[in-house]
Amino acid sequence: RETQDTSAVKTTRHNIARILTVLTEKKREEAKQ
What we know:
The protein has 1 helix and no strands. By secondary structure, it is mainly α. The protein has one domain. The model has no long low-confidence stretch (mean pLDDT 93).
């Protein structure tokens, strides 16, 4: 059970980090225009 919870947390953090990266890239592109 603990292993699954830890895996879920890692997956969630990874997804959040990826989303933040995408949003940051979009902001950078908008700033260039």
